[in-house]
Amino acid sequence: MEMNGEIKALLVSIGSANIDDELLAEAAKTTIPSAGPGAGLESFFFKSGGHRVRLSINKNSPLRVVRCCTDVAIIKDKKTIVTGKLEPALSHCPEQAYLTLSGRCVYDCKFCPVPKLDGEVKLPDKILQLVDEARQSGQLRAISLTSGVEKSPEDEVKRAVQMVRALRKRYDIPIGVSVYPTDTSSEELKAAGATEIKYNVETMDPEIFARYCPGLSLDYVLTSLEKAVNIFGRNRVSSNFILGLGESDECVLDGVTRLAEMGVIPNLRPISPHPLRAGEVKVERPSAERLLKLARATKKALEDQGLRADLAETMCLPCTGCDITPQIDV
Ligand code: SF4
Question: pTM of the full predicted structure?
């Protein structure tokens, strides 16, 4: 049985699966281990019927992945719900080198583990090396860069601009960038050779934003998105919008409509509670029904504005692993 939007929504709502070590080892063998120690062992990608899903590995999940002839099957309550193939990641996800420049952040968004991790700040040579390793697979279709804010948004944008410039000299494939915006980030990144840009609203509920993203400004992100559409063009600007922080469906529907009217493609992202943030944020992973309802409404909002999520070439929209992506999954 192949995956469709409904089956994917069920898998995404659960978000994890128990997978045999042997199967995982087979998938990991074809994964370039360049995203840091342990990367690729934490989650895996499954593809079926033209849809892709990323599931985290959890021995206690109600889903179990087993071998099934030349494919694998995902089982729930002793019944096979879908069959398909495990898909190798390049750097983070299939077909892309999706790299984090700074794995640290001076801000403290309550749903994000990065400020607690004190992660690596990658030097340009390391990024170039990781992209080159991904290129050697023959499957590299895009480069995507994201970053925490190690010192300041301005400093981080400077780092991203330098990196895009260096990559653009070497690669003729789409480059996407996701950073916290600055007054000149869109102009600078476009001039450096970036193809697409993502500034995350995180939520369109101003009270939830103020509570969970202290020190950041939703209005500033929205203004920056509007400007980004003028610089990068329609279908080239997206924004992550988290589902599960206590926002109402009405807030999501109004929010995606407002973003689409600005020419921005919303990327509805089901929240994944992180152990490092336990007790700091109240989260509820959305049900399959809610995921489908909101994805279908977003599809309509995009189509009303003549926007196409399925034209995106970088970052999460073409990957689709974590979300129900309008015009691809529904
Ligand atoms: S949808 Fe985005 S965050 Fe999820 S696996 Fe794909 S690239 Fe990574």
Answer: 0.94
Residues 156 and 203 in one domain: yes
CATH of the domain at 130: 3.20.20.70
* Whether residue 77 is found in the same domain as residue 103: no
Per-residue pLDDT reduced to its tens digit, 48-93: 999 999 999 999 999 999 999 889 999 999 999 999 999 999 888 9
Q: Name the domain boundary from 53, 87, 121.
A: 87
Is there a single domain that holds both residue 48 and residue 139?
no
For ligand 1, say whether the CB of 54 is within 6 Å of any of its atoms.
yes
Is 327 inside a domain boundary?
no
Contact 197, 175 (CB under 8 A): no
Distances in Å between the Cα of 30 and the Cα atoms of 54, 134, 315, 320 are 16, 11, 21, 20
Q: pLDDT tens-digit profile of 221-230? A: 999 999 999 9
Domain that holds residue 280: 92-319
Q: Is the CB of 97 under 6 A from ligand 1?
A: no
93 lines ligand 1 (CB under 6 A): yes
DSSP output for 223-262: HHHHHHHHHH-TTSEEEEEEE-SS--HHHHHHHHHHHHHT
Ligand 1 centroid distance, CA of 227 (Å): 25
Ligand 1, atom 2, residue with closest C-alpha: 316
Q: Which residue's CA is the closest to the ligand 1 atom numbered 5? A: 321
Residues of the chain with pLDDT under 70: 28-41
**129 shares a domain with 79:** no
pLDDT of residue 29: 52
Q: Is 322 in the pocket of ligand 1 (CB under 6 A)?
A: yes
* Shared-domain flag, residues 37 and 98: no
260 lines ligand 1 (CB under 6 A): no
Task: Quote the ligand 1 centre to 323 CA distance (angstroms).
Answer: 8
Instruction: Supply 306's token pair.
Output: 């003549």
pLDDT at 38: 34
Strand, coil or helix: 294: helix
